[in-house]
Write a structure and sequence with these properties.
mainly beta, Immunoglobulin-like, Glucose Permease (Domain IIA), 2 domains, 24 strands, about 50% strand, binds zinc ion
Length: about 270
């Protein structure tokens, strides 16, 4: 008989600007043939990586090397994480487990550096990169781009993917990191290579998409604003590969006119 052990409250604090709380992963215990089998099910919109260890393990042998590291796809199936086999069948056994988890596949994700991203703002508008890669205001060791944009400008998906999370309930922003958690954003998973893109500082109620939506490149996903830790109205755009407890941001090429290249701080770009 399968027994639900718990729903993991997936608290992803690795976005830099905010936290996401998502309940996607369920862990089941199933006792069969004298074994304890632990299964996971992912009801979310992208794969989730898990790392499981056992701080308490009494009279039980684990079927795999520890910690168990694996990816739970979001295809509706249940996946066997591990089997626990009693050493002495007559004695009592007991276990406790610990989990680490993050959105995406932390083991195998490699960004497609050849992908040509679409400028993520309204067609016909021009924007200056107010802060570029490793910028001095808030991009220390961060490969992110800040597009200066008047609040209310359309924000476009730079690449096709699946919407993972949306926050749009904040109407506050300020110039210090105290406002970090107050940024509205849309987080998109790129199904092609498993990377993520975040679109940050959107205005209040400024999202036009919801979690689970499929979006195409150039589709309007929301409206820019100045929420969160921000020195003025702009769109923070960042693409990253997921890692446990952190993320690794990457440089992305954009299609600008008939050229495909990286963007530079202080330079203006026009969306066509
Ligand atoms: Zn930024």
């Amino acid at each position: 008989m399968k027994q639900l052990l718990f729903l993991i409250s997936l608290l992803v604090s690795t976005l830099g600007f905010s936290q996401i709380q998502i309940d996607w992963i369920e862990v089941y215990e199933d006792q069969a043939d004298g074994k304890i089998n632990l299964y996971a099910h992912n009801s979310g919109h992208c794969p989730v990586s898990i790392m499981m260890s056992f701080p308490t393990l009494e009279n039980l042998k684990v079927s795999k090397g520890l910690p168990v590291e694996m990816v739970i796809p979001n295809d509706g199936e249940e996946y066997l994480i591990v089997s626990l086999v009693p050493i002495n069948k007559q004695a009592n056994s007991n276990y406790l487990f610990d989990f680490k988890y993050n959105l995406g596949d932390v083991f195998n994700t490699v960004h497609n550096d050849d992908y040509a991203y679409t400028l993520p703002f309204e067609k016909g508008k021009r924007s200056v990169i107010g802060q570029g890669y490793n910028g001095r205001f808030s991009h220390h060791n961060l490969l992110a781009l800040d597009f200066d944009l008047k609040s209310g400008t359309e924000v476009l998906a730079a690449r096709e993917g699946t919407v993972i999370a949306v926050k749009e309930d904040s109407d506050k922003g300020c110039k210090t990191h105290k406002c970090k958690g107050l940024a509205n954003y849309v987080l998109i998973y790129h199904d092609e290579d498993g990377t993520f893109a975040s679109y940050v500082h959107l205005q209040k109620d400024g999202a036009k998409v919801k979690a689970g939506d499929k979006v195409s490149a150039g589709q309007v996903i929301g409206y820019s604003g100045n929420t969160g830790w921000s020195s003025g109205p702009h769109l923070h755009f960042e693409v990253y590969t997921p890692e446990f407890n952190t993320r690794k941001s990457v440089r992305t090429k954009f299609r600008v006119g008939d050229k495909v290249d990286y963007l530079e701080e202080r330079k203006p770009y026009t969306s066509k």
